[in-house]
Amino acid sequence: MRTASDVVPALTVLTRVAQDEPEGRRHLARALRGRLERVGEAAVQVAAETGQPMGEVLAAALKEHPEPGLFFRLAEVCGREPYRHSTHLASVALAVLDRCVESLPDRSDDHETERVFCRWLNDRGSRRLQVGQRDEAVSDLREAARRRSRLAACTGSREDRLGHARSLSNLAQATLDVGRRGRSLVIGRRAVAAIAGSGSAVAADLPRLAACRLGELPGRVQGRRSGGGRGASRPGGADVKVGRLVAFPEGASRPGGADPGGR
Amino acid sequence: MGTRSLVRDIGRGLALATLCHGFADEREAVDQLRRLHLFSDQPRATVTSVAHLLHESYGGERWVDPLLPDLLGERLVYGEIERGGGELLDLTLGPANADG
User: Fold this and answer.
1) How far is B83 from chain A (nearest CA, A)?
2) Phi, psi at residue A262, to the nearest 5°?
3) Residue A1 structural domain
């Protein structure tokens, strides 16, 4: 019986063939058809490491797959490092998370189910941001932040408060991406407040993180801060906070971030 | 088994080795080759001879290495699948079923 890792070399070769031969894509689709339960995780690995067209072919194959169990498994795989920020996996992750969000029953009274649902919403929003579906990303991230806020209020747990802060952080980035800078700033401040109130170790580092990220801010934001534009009249460091939040540990919405599979 | 057929059969065996990232030892090579339709009714001695031929020609880090450089190996695999080598997918990925 071949294991998941045993099939990685074959899928890698087939993906490379498909990169060079137009007909190779058809063979790759044929290789996945009827085998997704067995090779799904390996296909995700190959998509991240070898690149297209594996991600596109896998995403198309997943849309025909009936069993939700596979999608739950792949959502976990796509959400882990080093796949979390892989742009090659964007279409796969979106196909997976769409099905996950559709498949989970609405059980907001069950905290664990709600926690998982919120994570999927947050991840889908981040992936949508990655592929340029900005308005849809804002919608997902806003809903994730809203539900996580309610969850954190119910449970009072540090994990849920930090989850809420993460969703706000990603929402701030998405809102900035759709051009709503003022709104992004407001949400960014709420994220900072949520982090500070989360009791997380990160909270203690907020001032230091804000300072050390100053040199890493995008030129656009730096320019506004030092160039005397409209942003210069705002309270000092406000844009810094938004910029820093992009680099927050669970900032899954970093578009154009380092892609482990981008070789 | 004519010469032309033998060369083609060895090609398919090497394509299988390429998809499997090579064969670790003689036993694995023979076992894998015997799963190919074209070797399934051949005497074990014949298959073992083919395995040794592959080892002597393509042995390296593994008892039989994948065909290198990669581009050649990929070209070989593509050609074999185009020639009806769908069994290569079953042998390396497992049989397709109704799971999707």
Assistant:
1) 12
2) -85, 25
3) 1-103
Residue in B76, B95, B62 with CA at minimum distance from that of residue A7: B95
CA atoms of B81 and A18, how far apart (whole Å): 12
Rounded to whole angstroms, the Cα distance separating A139 from A141 reads 6
Q: How does the average pLDDT of chain A come out, rounded?
A: 80
Residue A195 lies in a domain: no
The burial class, CB within 10 Å (0-12 / 13-18 / 19+), for A57 is: buried
A179 or B6, greater pLDDT: A179
pLDDT band at B99 (very low <50, low <70, confident <90, very high): low
Burial A8-22 (b: 16+ CB within 10 A, else e): bbbbbbbbbbbbebe
Instruction: Tell me the chain B residues in contact with residue A39 when contact means C-beta distances shorter than 8 Å.
Output: 93-94
pLDDT digits (tens, 9 = 90+) for A115-127: 999 999 999 999 9
Task: Report the alpha-carbon angle B66-A15-B12, nearest 5.
Answer: 40
Number of domains comprising chain A: 1
Please report residues of B whose CB lies closer than 8 A to that of A20. 71, 74, 78
pTM of structure = 0.78
Answer whether A65 sits within 8 Å of B94, measured CB to CB. no
A3, A5, A13, A35: best to mutate for the B interface, most B CBs within 10 A? A13
Token pair, residue B84, equals: 């009806």
| Cis before B66 (ω within 30) | no
Q: What is the Cα–Cα distance from A5 to A15, expressed in whole angstroms?
A: 16
Q: Per residue in A135-163, pLDDT tens?
A: 999 999 999 999 999 999 999 998 999 99
